Amino acid sequence: MKVLIAEDEFTTRMMVQVCLENWGYRVESVTNGNDALAALQKPDAPHIAILDWEMPEMDGVEVCRRAKELESINPPYILLLTGRDSKTDIVKGFDAGADDYMTKPFNDNELRARVRVAERLVRTQSSLSESVAELKEALNQVEMLENSIEVCLDCQKIFSPYDGQWYGVRDILKNGTDPRFIVDTCPGCVKK
Predict the structure, then answer these.
(1) Rounded Cα–Cα distance for residues 142 and 76 (Å)
(2) Of 17, 65, 9, 16, nearest to 37 (Cα)?
(3) pLDDT tens for residues 55-92?
(4) Contact partners, residue 31, CB within 8 Å, separation at least 6
(5) Paired residues of 49 in beta bridges
(6) Cβ atoms of residues 79 and 98 within 8 Å
(7) Which domains does the chain have, with CATH numbers?
(8) Per-residue pLDDT tens over the stretch 151-175
(9) Which end of the chain is flanked by fewer CB atoms within 10 Å, N or C?
């Protein structure tokens, strides 16, 4: 799984990156908020983002807010990793859309546990999105089958599931025996 690190302080960025790579994650790292947001907008965007609060060009809270506003079936899981530890800042981070919040200095084991939770949630969300897409497709197929019209190849009579009879097109249009047919006049006939 791909993880984005957005951290302008070199030592912290490298510590987080080394930890993540040792745990088997693919890492993309950037040093400012604009690059972080750009990385999250790519077609192959990371599934998890670890953002510092204070970065050049755009802070982590604004990146978080904008990333959560993106049109995405599976938005990134965002963990704010910051030196800000006041209750007000924590609430502000979550209000911006952060999924988790950790303060620096961080503990490697706690970071690993939180990233694993993020990975489980991302995989679950992805699985749910796939299931929803499959269900929508199945529903479309069912609706199409329910609304299909059975026509005799030889006599061109049409079967009406409402009364179980076969009718000619003119009979259906005159009598209104099948509500799937809407009688109208095409533009070509209107001109005649």
Answers:
(1) 33
(2) 65
(3) 999 999 999 999 988 877 788 999 999 888 899 999 99
(4) 6, 7, 8, 13, 55, 56
(5) 4, 78
(6) yes
(7) 2-139 (3.40.50.2300), 149-190 (no CATH)
(8) 888 888 888 777 888 888 888 777 7
(9) C
Q: How far apart are CA 54 and CA 32, in angstroms?
A: 9
Neighbours of 34 (CB within 10 A): 15
Model confidence, pTM: 0.69
Residue labelled with tokens 């197929």 = 141
Alpha carbon 118 to its chain centroid, in Å, reads 15
Q: What is the DSSP string of 9-76?
A: SHHHHHHHHHHHHHTT-EEEEESSHHHHHHHHHSTT--SEEEE-SS-SSS-HHHHHHHHHHS--SSPP
- Tallying the residues shown for the chain, one arrives at 192
